[in-house]
Write a structure and sequence with these properties.
mainly beta, Jelly Rolls, 4-stranded antiparallel beta sheet, 14 strands
Length: 138
């Protein structure tokens, strides 16, 4: 299997290096080639809840890089006309969402969802744009 593949709208799904033994496993969250990581944020989404429940959001400048640490997430992606989604449930993949892609995610599991984001720039509220759900839906 390839280490990464183009998914949709310029997004990439990167398989993260994973080292496993009888004690458990370690996943490398900063593989070579993903670029600058000025900060990391960790979010917890409770059972049957969504981030951005009523709105899509998009960044004009920065790239988001999501890794699911625990639980099951459905990531929704849109270019403004078409709509795609991908389910993620373990920390062996990173979803890279480039500037210009509308996105949001939802907890689809039966436990709290933990996600880390390793964006390529420090958060700037002037770089975040929102539209109501339904506008970017296909």
């Amino acid at each position: 299997m390839s280490d990464e593949f183009d998914f949709v709208f310029g997004c990439k799904l990167v398989y993260l290096p994973r080292f496993e033994d009888e004690r458990g496993y370690l996943s490398v969250l900063t593989p070579e080639g993903i670029g600058n990581i000025p900060y990391v944020y960790h979010s917890v989404t409770f059972i049957h809840q969504s981030r951005d429940t009523d709105k899509w959001h998009m960044h004009k400048k920065h790239t988001d890089r999501f890794v699911v640490l625990r639980g099951k997430a459905m990531f929704y992606l849109s270019d403004g006309t078409t709509f795609k989604w991908i389910a993620m449930s373990e920390p062996c993949r990173m979803l890279i969402v480039p500037p210009g892609v509308w996105h949001r995610f939802q907890n689809i599991g039966e436990e709290s969802l933990e996600v880390v984001n390793l964006p390529d720039a420090v958060y700037d509220p002037d770089d975040e744009f929102r539209i109501p759900i339904g506008v970017g839906d296909a």
